[in-house]
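Record passed on underneath.
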Amino acid sequence: MSTSLSASDKQRLLQLARESLEAAVRGRSYPPVDPDALSPALRRKGASFVTLTERGELRGCIGGLQAQYPLYEDVLLHAAQSALHDYRFPPVTPDELPEIEVEVSILTEPQPLTYETPDDLPGRLRPEVDGVILAQGRRRATFLPQVWERVPDPEIFLSMLCEKMGAHPDAWRRTKLDVQIYEVEKFTESEFHLHGS
C-alpha cells in the first residue's frame, strides 16, 4: 500500500504513542503537542490502531476505522485507550511499562467487498493483506491484517471474527454479511530501536 509517512513520521507517531501510554497509565494528561511542529502527513485526518504487547503477548489493542481526527491525535487517543480501556485486559500498570512494546497501524479507508454467496467469501479475502470488517445489523467487529499471522485459515478467521462480533461462529456461512476490507501500514518501537527495545 502507498503511504505518505516518512521514517521520521513513523518514529514521531511511536514517540507520541509512548508518551500518551505512559501519561495515561500514571494518571496524567499527555503533554500538549504543537501541531505546527509536525509534518503535514501527521496533521491530516487518519485512522489508526495502537497495539500493545508484553513479552510478545497481546496486552491491548484499540483503534478506529474511520479517519475522524488528525492522525497524531488519533494515535494519542488510541494509545491511552489501549492501555486502560481494552475490555479484554486489566489496565496496564506503571510496573509493566518497561515491558510494553508499542505498534502503530495506519489504516486505508475501508472498501466494500462484494461476493455472491457465503461460500465465495473465504476465497475473496487476501490473507496477511486484508483487514476485515464484518457487520450484521448493529453488530460490527474487525480484525487487523496482523491476525492472519496467528489465524491463516480464512474460514477460521471469519468464524473467530463472527464470535468477536457477538454472533454465532457460523454466521458468515448462514447469511450474507456486510464485509469491508482495508490495508494497514504497521510499525513498531523495536523496528526503530525506540524505548530501549
